Structures
1.
Amino acid sequence: MKTENQVAIVTGGASGLGKATAQALVQSGAKVALFDMNAENGAKAAAELGGETIFVPANVADHTSVDDAVAQVRNAFGTVHIVASCAGIGGSTRILGKKGLVAPEWFPNIVNVNLVGTFNLVRSTVALISENPPDEGGERGVYINTASIAAFDGQIGQAAYSASKGGIVSMTLTLAREFANTGIRVMTILPGIFDTPLLGTLPPEAKERLNKQVPFPSRLGQVEEYAALALHIINNRYLNGESIRLDGALRMGFGRR
């Protein structure tokens, strides 16, 4: 699918992977709607990106909020062709820790943002995308979802995070098969350890330890590298129903502690 003059929704668009992806889309001629809960950063990001970029406040874990946000995009741009779901939360907590059992809401809170939030975007946009006239190859749209290598290499304390990202991987082929006759592709990117605001609070020595874990290149991933893969997925119409690791060959070990 070509990106020029296409309409894209990018969740988590105010920072990190989302903002980098939105920037790449704007530079390639797309019209972009940034979804984020941080209104100040979202409006600032839209202004910085320029072009035909708008900010729409949205909580991906709330289907009503997503429905309302998608309606605003339709009013502004008429349709949607591309959905890049980059919104997500992390956190590492042992189920049985030194202070006792983890709070019961910990698991569903992470799953609701990461997994249910991804599904909410699909549910709220698929009818709109299916109304698009097919291009010369029969394509109407593409979804790019964001999982994590934790879907396969989950670490101690990541039960909720790994489950949420594993769910995204598991529904990738299912959705691709369901939407095949409509001309809609579904792909998932599994980032390794990336230099995003989620890691921004780590001290330099901690980041250096992470760098050394990556075989090559031995550094944190850059958000622009995620964005470059997202653009390639959009442009390469034969990519469908697959999850791609983007991790410098990193395979997280057991790390007993």
Note: The mean pLDDT is 95.
2.
Amino acid sequence: MSGAIEAFVIVSGPDDPDRNIFHMSLRIAFAASSAPLAQAAKASLTRRYGDHTEAGADVIVALGGDGFMLTTLHRTQDLPAPVYGMNRGTVGFLMNEYSEHGLEERLAAAEEEVINPLSMKAETNEGQIHHALAINEVSLLRAGPQAARLQISVDGKVRMSELVCDGALVATPAGSTAYNYSAHGPILPIGSDVLALTAMAAFRPRRWRGALLPKTAQVTFDVLDAEKRPVMAEADSRAVRDVVRVDIRSEPSIAHKVLFDPGHGLEERLIREQFV
């Protein structure tokens, strides 16, 4: 693994009833979604491996689906411990396969991916400023019966004076297989320094599907005719209503460390997703 966890392994003696279990000096904190399946998994794993506080843990194990994984990453972004997810939800793109056995060995062998989130600054029609971070994407969505009218600028230069659409989003490579892919946006290699700008149901220009931008770019959406055509902004499902301007950029100062079983990291998953 890329230096995220160091631990030693001690094999139990022959008289130990758990002689086939490896015990390590690894401090694990378990976090689970409210789903009964995830809560039952946490109870079972805690009995087997113990449980530490997240602040004092070497690694945090998140039990749930992708939504809970995103919540855990946001909540623990200031802690040094990486996060290893096990799927007790539905899709589980960011999660590893669930198993109660051999967890310490899996953690010791895990590979680390580093994800930089997007930073969103959203201004409402009342002049309020909202800040949020998004690991997957920041999206703008029409909030009324009429299509949204958006002006798009990149690094302060207007690139599209009017986009009439149901919405638009900016996605990271890690989030490119989520909402972005459903909106027919491209899947981005995890190591690429690129962001995807994707339109949803574009009416004018009718066939415009978006653009690929350097990771360093700042994207600004200005909402045109905001009172008649209200728009909401979302950063990983955290919504701000009645926005008039949204600035989006990558946030390199924040690095989410996510652990995956060897051969099942984000790079492999992103490639595999394109051949399904």
Note: The domain at 118-250 is CATH 2.60.200.30 (Tumour Suppressor Smad4).
3.
Amino acid sequence: MAQGVTAFLPESQEPVVPESLSLSVVVPVWMEAASIVDCLRPLAPLREAGHEVIVVDSGSTDGTAELARPLCDRVVQAKKGRAVQMNAGAEVARGNVLLFLHADTRLPDNALDELRWFELNEPTWGRFDVRLSGQRPLFRVVSWFMNKRSRLTGMCTGDQAMFVRRDLFEALGGFREQPLMEDIELSRRLRLVSRPWCISSPVVTDSRRWEKLGPWRTIFLMWRLRWRYWRGESPESLSKVYRSDVRND
């Protein structure tokens, strides 16, 4: 190039940030035949981009695993229990970032772009904001409070699609295999390492549980369980309270 001549890159040749994100989406399921296809189909673009989706089934007898198999990279069988299942999925995952997705939760369309920003920054774990799928105005209020609480406390629930760097997850020993509050328990330990990376583009969680029990009853149940857990009550006893309340509906 001649001396004194400044070179400009055309817009189409702007430097590109190298892809460093390798994502493994772990989906724990049990008896989800009615919704598993709707859960996995939106994840196809992630798989096309080279990331993996792992479904962890716990002995479903309704065909969940068979329906999931063509739409994911592998189906793993594990004992029943969300924490047990998520640990089993993480154990076989290849990605450097693990994302734990409930079968009734949908990622936003820009999830991959948002997670690339996370990968390029310092935080070691994070979660998405959440929006309940129902159209009732109360659900918008509930979602706002869930997100606000999470930002203030640095705590994450499973409905918010928690993600964490794999090396840290393994160093902490993964989820404690308890029947309830495994997400809160892991959040407490992760929070000692860093504050969560909060993605404002919301995941959408099916509001059927809220509609079945009633919004106010569900709110009071969840807050009561978290309060008792914070006071030191065991996850095993709280799980019995939760199952009893749901069955009495």
Note: DSSP finds eleven helices and eight strands in the chain.
